[in-house]
């Protein structure tokens, strides 16, 4: 046993116990092989991740995926080469602190610069995982609202009613307001003159509500009169509220407005214009 | 004793006192076993935490929990593998500072990017722990208000009266206004003309207040007239205040408005329209 | 002497002067005992701190305290275990830089994420220490105002007049406006028509002020007429000011308004409606 | 074998096993050569990157490219020289921690200062890669909107309709609103007097819509009347909506307005002026 | 000499030249003593600082000072104990990097959390040192204004005219507006009708200015008429300006307003009401 | 060979292989010389950079340049001295970690404090390099606009039309709006009464546009009538648009306005005053 | 030679080649002396800097300077003592990493806290160096404007026209608007009725401009009529512009207004009151 060990020692180490050139050479070869293997393994992981994502809703574009995968592979390859280089230098007792420091500062600066990219991806993952919204939902994100068209790794695309396409970095997505989860509220405020009999108005409106409920089956909870929501400057404000299927609330609101107008015309109930009481005086007397 | 020690030394260490290949091999095996054990232990802790949370109100969705647990386990597994790798390299005297530096910068960048996730979880924990609000409470968080529907580890879901679902990252939750803890205030401001006798108006309103108090038992502290809250441009503003059960304040406010309107009609008290005094003059004379 | 030392050396150290397995074993045992002792000591300190706080106004809820103390103890236990593990690994010459780096980055990320918690506690301490406000004070913190209900380690609870409970993380508390320290000012602005004799108006108002001073003993410094605070669009603005006990200022303001209105009715002084001078012209001539 | 190794050792190392001056000299020469090679390689990579970019849409200006490449090469050259210097000092056992610390702080400060530059480039890359917008698109970026004139590595140039050229650092580009992807909406709001028969008005407007649809083929989805969008202070607000080709929406809106005006003139439908109801009273009676 | 040295070496060091247990024990005792001495010295410095501050205007409250000093002493004591512990462990060759890393991260997080405290103190020092304001001055700090009541190490207390006490962390104090350093300006804007003779009005106002200058000796620079500051919608705006002693400007402004009103009444100069020219037309003809 | 090496070793190194005092002395002298040489080289580089900049548009002021160069040289000198000092201490085996740590923290704090300076210079470089604007251009930077008067290394000076000189740190320059690159748009909105015949108005305006096109040769693209841009409260809004040479747009706008006014006078087209429809009613009946 | 070296070695070093107590003692003494010398040198530099600054415009107050110098000297003294202590501990092989870590974190926290101080000084230096403004200039800094009264190392004092003294930390100074560099613009907008002949009005105004130019010699570029700047709701807006000496613009503006008013009175040109066209209708018919 001892002799074998001695033989190995003698061959690879010099009299001081440090590795000699042969020992070091073998180490270099091993590092080279390991680095190569690691690069190949990482390539495979990237390919696999890309293909599994392909099946999902992210980046449906084949060409973009390939570009992305090539860029990623290149970056990883160079990082591994760099690590290998430093390790080999270390074997030959050349201090690499200066290279590490330079690369470290460079890497840190690029890393901090690329941080919003990391945040984009993390936020994107959680939106998907928590199912905050899905393609086709009508959402409000910050000051932008519209229908979600694409939910990507880095950006979310939302199309406004006006046709504009908002491209929002996931990182900018804080609070999301989803308007496609559950019944939406249609709300119409109606002004009537102070001179009207408030109970008669309510009766008329109740009739209108009943009619609308019958005519539309996308209403979840029939239009109801909440009551007097304000004693305003020019008249009494009454509020009518209904629950509808998502995205139908605006149509119902317009319908309520039209029917109220027709009923008021029929029943001769005044929607008040701004009113003013005038006292006429002679100048400065 | 000495001989046993010498035997061990001879077998595992070379003449320089450093470990020989056998000694190093044993160390590697031990590290391998320890890493495996640690991974298994961490898996168990995760499983346990997941199951205890399942009982609570967080993430009721079984499938999501499993996904989350698999993701977590994978991340932890790779971190432990990475640590093991570095330790083994250290045993063979290969300097790992370059790998550590690279991984360190990468980890720091991802870590800082994932920071808002950490903040989400910490804030979420404190909301639960301090019982700031619970599911069903009517709250205001920043610019969003509504009824809490879900209080999760990372996000809180609040449903607006308009039916919109606000998904708020816990991290974005600063000051919380809880409107379901204690009696709420109903407040109605009534304008009467300067020409009215202020004491008669107050008497009439007092009668109204008494009637409302009798008619509604969700009022905690009966509607009272605070007094003249403003000498406005067009009239005197009187304020009526009541304390009600939570979420009933708006109904009571509408009720007060309706009763005041009816009483004023009955008593012939004028709610003033905007008034203006006009001096007519001849042009530039 | 020498021999004793030699004996010790021989038993615990090998021929190279490094500790042998026995020497190392003893070190491990000592570290194990010290860690255990430190954990117990820390437990006692936590228990003591919890009980002393219990007497104060912080966290009156026994159950919450126990939960908090268990969470804290667990965190500390695992940190000590982790330190112990690293020290033992160091004794066996296994490099732990990779573990330290991983844990360091993890700890830093969690630490930075938990920073607002640290700030909450520090700010909370100073609010208490400097007696910025106490439970029952009427304060304004940022955009929230109301009566302080609870002054906790992490959050301050303020109840609004509208009954809403604002739960403010101490960290969000910057400038505090305390409205319960010293006399408050009641301020009423009264408009009179340009046509009135300004000195007669001031005399009438002085009478009103005297009457109010007599009738109310919660006034610290009697209502005074400051003078003409504006030559407005429609009339002359006079300002009446009084100093009252805290929280009484609004009542006094309403009282002043009512008395001024009655005096003006009595004395026939006009509170001016918006006025306008009209020149009538024929269209485009 | 042994003898060769001994010879090498004797020649390059002194009796203590450290390298002697000859051994060190060889190391220095090797470092010098490697540094030179690395600089040349980096130069080639830069040249290649510059030329490949030249073909693209970035920096079409040859002269700027050369300046940029010279600046970049100089910076890289000095960094490599610096690294080489430190490595040589290390070989001669002169501690370089002070130089590294000084350079590290300097580099970090410059790096953090140049961070927005890194962010500019990363954001620029993603805008190109994700095809968020291309030259000629009409976009809105933050508060600036206009037609994209140049999409550079560091800045994006957008020309406003008013002719102004906005030069936006890519780093400042968050959410992008692209108005050239898909049909745009033309929206016209029309007010009619409360006195009008609402159904007759809708019929007239329907005729107008049909005529416009026929006359213009840049309309994707014909102008439709959504219904009553508001019961306003002075009249009923009707909303007409059409989908058009991008950038044509404003023209269609102006066309709709003109045709509506003409139809209303023809059909004698009133577009209401602000209205007011006046009650004349005698002063204070 | 040699023998003495040898004796010392033999007694304290083992054959390898490392310190033996006796040598290490002595080092531990020395560290223990030094730590104790340092703690006592720091205590004395704190006590001294506290007493010198007591004489100043900071923290007049004896009890608070004692609490603060006890807290400070405890923190310092534990820090010194911690340093001593690490040094002793180092003597016994137990690697302390894990403890240092743990404590370092903890300290950094607490330190960053306590940073606003550091800023409070530094800003407080400079406010005092630069004499930006002193107790009794009328200042404006951010959105808060009032009379300075206390200028503390950490907070500044400002009492508003409305009696509210603003407690502002020094850290929040950016630009300070001091209104008690030098003469203040009283500024009154007077509107006269376009129909008035502008030169006659200026003469009348000049008379008023002269009278005021005579009557008040807290005016530094007499009220002057600047001229026509606006050709407004309803009339010509003239501006009167005076320089007064600090805090007297509002009184002077009210006085100027009153005297101008009386002079205009006397001289029959019109302060214009809003004016409007009316063209009457028949509906749509 | 061996003997020479031995001689050198004996002379400069002691029996332990460490450098003796002579060896160390030589190292110190070398460091001293190298530091001196580096300082001189840096001085030359600074002088060169200063002179090359002098030729450019930056800092035309000779005196400022000298001051700047002296300050820079002093800072660099002291940094090199500091590095030299640490290296010499290291040679004599005096640990310098405490000095490095102290200087490192100091340097970091100053560096971070001076960061905005670094950003100023980097941004300044890119403004020049990308030719974002040049002296004499009319630009808008943030809320400031005017003609660029100086484009410096650290600040940009912009003179407003009102004569004010805005001195903007380059760091504050984000998006730049350059109004001197390409034709500018003149835009005039004209209101005509609803009663007018819209086609006749357009014809009249077309005549006006033709006349203006003929009369002015600084118009790039003749004034055109876009169409009806709004159906407003009081009238129909028509928009006229022209493209002019930079800085001429305001003059053209004023010219268009004047000619439109004259044409409307001639053609008797009404520019509508605010209109209102009045219903007179008896009070509350 | 050898013998001398051996003698030195024997006296100062023990048999292991490490310094013995005598050798260490001498090192300690040297460190002590060097630290003392460095402190004295720094004191002298501070004194010199203070005296050179005294001559300048910074800190004219002798007493403040002394306080500042004492504080600075104390801080530097303790930092040097601390460095010396660590170096001595290092000589006696006591690991100081724990002390360095503790002091490092403390220093970093204080340093970051004091960072705005560093920024104050750097910004202050550049304001002076670039001559952005000097004492007596009328400037606008952020939201504050007035005449510069003091330009200090840390703060700039600006006195408002209202007499208020704004004390602005230099750090808060971003963009500076200097209103005392070059001619200022006086701008007066005049409204005339639509009914007026626009050419006659312009002739009248031209006469007024000529008269003003003659009467005032602080006008750099005579008042000119720019043309019609708006076709407003009630009239035509004409703009008159002049260039004046700094600070004279407001006086000239008031003068222009007065002369225009007098000329219009003379020439019977109407400055229009708000106008309205009224259509009277019967209620709802």
Keywords summarizing the entry:
homoheptamer; 285 residues; Helix Hairpins; SH3 type barrels; Alpha-Beta Plaits; 3 domains; three-stranded antiparallel beta sheet; rod-shaped
The H-and-E topology of chain A, N to C, reads as HHHHHEEEEEEHEEHE
Largest sheet of chain A: 5 strands, antiparallel
Q: Strand-residue fraction of chain A?
A: 15-25%
Low-confidence stretches of chain A: none
Bin the helical content of chain A: 40-55%
CATH architecture group name of the largest domain in chain A: Orthogonal Bundle
CA-based gyration radius of chain A = 36 Å
Mean pLDDT rating of chain A:
85
Under CATH, the topology of the largest domain in chain A can be stated as Helix Hairpins
Shape of chain A, please? rod-shaped
Biggest interface reads: A-D, 69 and 70 residues
Total number of helices of chain A: 7
Q: What class, by secondary structure content of chain A?
A: alpha+beta
* Cα distance spanning the termini of chain A: 128 Å
Lateral strand order in the biggest sheet of chain A = 4-3-2-1-5
CATH class of the largest domain in chain A: Mainly Alpha
- The count of DSSP E runs of length 2 or more, i.e. the number of strands of chain A, is 9
- The quaternary state of the protein chains shown equals homoheptamer
């Amino acid at each position: 046993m001892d002799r074998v060990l001695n033989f190995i020692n003698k061959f690879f180490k010099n009299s001081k116990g440090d590795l000699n050139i042969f020992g070091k050479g073998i180490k270099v070869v091993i590092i080279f092989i390991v680095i190569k293997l690691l690069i190949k393994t990482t390539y495979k992981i990237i390919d696999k991740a890309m293909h599994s994502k392909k099946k999902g809703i992210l980046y449906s574009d084949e060409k973009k995926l390939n570009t992305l995968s090539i860029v990623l592979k290149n970056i990883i390859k160079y990082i591994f080469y760099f690590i290998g280089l430093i390790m080999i230098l270390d074997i030959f007792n050349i201090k690499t602190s200066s290279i590490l420091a330079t690369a470290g500062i460079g890497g840190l600066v690029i890393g901090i610069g690329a941080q919003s990219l990391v945040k984009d991806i993390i936020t994107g993952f959680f939106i998907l995982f928590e199912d905050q919204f899905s393609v086709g939902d009508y959402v409000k994100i910050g000051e932008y609202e519209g229908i979600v068209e694409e939910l990507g790794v880095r950006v979310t695309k939302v199309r406004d009613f006006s046709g504009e396409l908002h491209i929002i970095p996931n990182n900018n997505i804080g609070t999301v307001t989803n308007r496609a989860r559950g019944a939406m509220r249609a709300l119409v405020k109606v002004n009537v003159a102070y001179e009207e009999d408030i109970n008669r108005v309510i009766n008329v409106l109740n009739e209108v509500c009943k009619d609308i409920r019958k005519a539309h089956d996308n209403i979840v909870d029939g239009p109801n009169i909440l009551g007097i929501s304000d004693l305003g400057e020019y008249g009494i404000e009454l509020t009518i509220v209904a629950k509808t299927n998502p995205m139908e609330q605006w149509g119902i609101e317009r319908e309520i407005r039209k029917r109220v107008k027709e009923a008021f015309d029929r029943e001769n109930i005044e929607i008040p214009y701004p009113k003013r009481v005038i006292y006429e005086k002679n100048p400065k007397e």
